[in-house]
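Board notes (copied after class):
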Amino acid sequence: MSSDYSFVNSMPPENLNETVLTERYFQAIDNMTSVFAIRPDDTVLFLSDPLIDPRVFHAVAGIARSRGVRPELYSSSNWNSGIFPEELKPVYEKASLVVSTWFASIGDPYCLKVRRDTGQRTVKMTYFRNIDVLKTVSRPSLWGKSRALRAGSIRNRRTSRSESPIPGAPTGRPISRRKCARTC
């Protein structure tokens, strides 16, 4: 008997049929437009860092422009400072939808206050940093876990910052011995 267990697989083989891949891709595109939920009366602000794939901004801009909205883009190398820049506060206050990779856009007290007071919506770009993610197998679970922070309807919902959108990915939470015995 061979000690090679490469033939053992608990998952069915991935279907790489071109028609199935096309279906999945358009499903991802539709899901993406639902996550961003850009409305014709929105003022869209995109806060970016130099590490994000520029095609992501152009994809979001394409959704916005198809609805008659012209988004503004600000890119900074200080995106992980945690403090929102003073010079952008007037622009930030005018935005009704903020799409951001910046940590400050979700944690800075100023940004939290603006969202609470104005009803501004925010989409934090944590996992969608490369347009090619739309073509990956993990895409459905990734988009399913994305959340637009909406004032009012989702304001009181608490979510874990350590929650991973990809099943089986590390979450940053400690694993109990009991769970480790089952999964490790």
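Comment from the instructor: The first strand starts at residue 44 and ends at 48. The chain has one domain: 18-155.
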